[in-house]
Amino acid sequence: QQQVKQSPQSLIVQKGGISIINCAYENTAFDYFPWYQQFPGKGPALLIAIRPDVSEKKEGRFTISFNKSAKQFSLHIMDSQPGDSATYFCAATNSGNTPLVFGKGTRLSVIA
Amino acid sequence: GAVVSQHPSWVICKSGTSVKIECRSLDFQATTMFWYRQFPKQSLMLMATSNEGSKATYEQGVEKDKFLINHASLTLSTLTVTSAHPEDSSFYICSARDRGWTGNQPQHFGDGTRLSIL
User: Fold this and answer.
1) Strands of B67-73's sheet, edge to edge?
2) pLDDT (tens digit, 9 = 90+) per residue, A81-111?
3) Class of residue B53 by CB neighbours under 10 A (exposed 0-12, middle 13-18, buried 19+)
4) Is A30 part of the contact surface with chain B (CB cutoff 8 Å)?
5) Are strands B113-117 and B10-13 parallel, antiparallel or unpaired?
6) Which of B6, B36, B41, B44 to mutate to probe the A interface, most A CBs <10 Å?
7) For the segment B84-107, what is each residue's pLDDT rounded down to a tens digit?
8) N or C: which end of chain B has fewer CB within 10 A?
9) 3-state secondary structure of B87
């Protein structure tokens, strides 16, 4: 049973455009939702994270939108750049030290 | 920021040999470490969770005798792939949580180890 569903599987965006990746979760006990960026041959790096007591969090060009009632959260990358081309994973966990549950990933390609 | 160092980054060895991968937290104490396996173009698959001084908890389907995990100190966890075979070839990634993790802090990842068994 996949607890975090991520879409789309791949995404091509023009330079300067907005990249949007969506995730949905099932377990209402989740209370920490990070996004990770992974380049080929490297481990995932934390990009931004949110807790369910806020509906939006912004850090630079990256924004997480969170909808608790719909059990959905999304990553928005504004002014997308070729250097943003990577695989992005959403994840979820709770404060009880349970492991992160990852989505299947989205391969983003930003083209000039 | 917190750094997790994984070594080696790439290893090639013959079928039947055992390979040890080290995961170190460089500037924090990691009471919990996780080991993941990642196949090309796929997500991270959790293999096991280890708490310092305790036996690791393995996910369903992961052979504990094949993948030996030791978390002997607050800064070091090791994964040993015993009698490795070509099907064990994969990208292995470790991750660590700081002591006192309450769910509001990041989980730190190493840069992975690419294991190729010939």
Assistant:
1) B4-7, B19-25, B76-81, B67-73
2) 999 999 999 999 987 778 899 999 999 999 9
3) exposed
4) no
5) parallel
6) B44
7) 999 999 999 999 988 777 766 778
8) N
9) helix
